[in-house]
Amino acid sequence: MARLEGKVALITGAARGIGAGIARAFAAEGALVWITDVDDAAGQALADTLVGASAGSRAGRAEYHHLDVREEAKWQAAIDALLTAHGHLDVLVNNAGISGFEHGPVPHDPEHASLEDWRAVHRLNLDGTFLGCKYAIRAMRPRGTGSIINVSSRSGIVGIPFAAAYASSKAAIRNHTKSVALYCANQGLRIRCNSIHPAAILTPMWEPMLGEGEARAGRMARLVSDTPLRRFGTVEEVAAVAVLLASDEATYMTGTELHVDGGILAGSAGLPHGD
Questions:
Q1: pLDDT tens-digit map of 31-73
Q2: How far is 190 from 175, CA to CA, in rounded Å?
Q3: Would you say residue 160 lies in a domain?
Q4: Residue 150 maps to which CATH number?
Q5: Angstrom distance (rounded) from CA 12 to CA 151
Q6: Each residue of 251-269: pLDDT tens digit?
Q7: Which one of 85, 116, 237, 262 is least enclosed by Cβ atoms within 10 Å?
Q8: Confidence at residue 206, expressed as pLDDT on a 0 to 100 scale
Q9: 166 carries an active-site annotation
């Protein structure tokens, strides 16, 4: 039996990158996956691909739905539509997020960042996660069970001086995850909430920095030179952790954080130097 067979999952920011990897993994494990994003073309293309891949197999189904996670009314409408169509929600993955650099280099350090840019990052990353948790709890409450997975970051554990808004928003997601987990337990609900903290995961976001040609390998090596495993992670490695948290194998895990970071938060892999 597939690990997520019979489960209904909603994933935000799922048109590409880590979200798309989680959508593929969930579908492969038998879940019915609601792919949500604001990039309708990419989201629908992924859903079509997953539907085609599931034909004649035991893989789950996939649907695409537009969702701007910043808007509370959009969340309420999306959850209402999902419950009307499928009756229940088992898994929510709050993955949608931005770094603040999507439209080019702008100051995001604590001294020069504008309040407008600071709020824009928090509105999508943090408000979107808050709203997702809020409406997922309400949707899961009648059955008393479910799994909420919040995608934070290594940057939610350590400071990032030139991406302060991103780091702040991801740190808040980390802590809100624990608040949600404790609230649900206090309510007598078996709704679990955990966070995943990826570090350098090879997604399209990195391509402008990596470039093409013979120099690409050297650039990749430099970018992960402080990572003990000395390589980028893959979206499949993050997705594997999400599958675990979504499955019934993790029913005693809540309020925890799982790092997918090649060991970077563990410390240095270098040899000690004597005086």
A1: 999 999 999 999 999 999 999 776 666 677 999 999 999 999 9
A2: 19
A3: yes
A4: 3.40.50.720
A5: 10
A6: 999 999 999 999 999 986 6
A7: 116
A8: 78
A9: yes
Whether this model's pTM surpasses 0.90: yes
In a domain? residue 122: yes
* Residue 156 DSSP class: G
Can you tell me whether residue 207 is helix, strand or coil? Answer: helix
Domain assignment present for 274: no
% pLDDT > 70, the chain: 94
Report the 10 Å Cβ neighbour count for 271.
Answer: 6
Identity of residue 228: P
Q: How many helices (H) and strands (E) does the chain have?
A: 9, 7
Beta bridge partners of 36: 65
Number of domains in the chain: 1
Which of 193, 183, 23 lies closest to 96 in space, CA to CA? 23
Give domain status of residue 81, yes or no: yes
- Rounded Cα distance between 192 and 182, Å, is 9
Owning domain of residue 70: 8-205+234-264
User: From CA 95, how far away is CA 271, in angstroms rounded?
Assistant: 36
Distance of CA 8 to the CA centre of its chain: 17
- Residue at token pair 């992924």: 46
Kindly state the tokens that stand for 8: 């209904």
Q: Among 64, 135, 166, 252, which one carries the catalytic annotation?
A: 166
Query: Hey, what's the torsion of the CAs at 70, 76, 79, 81, to 10 degrees?
Result: -120
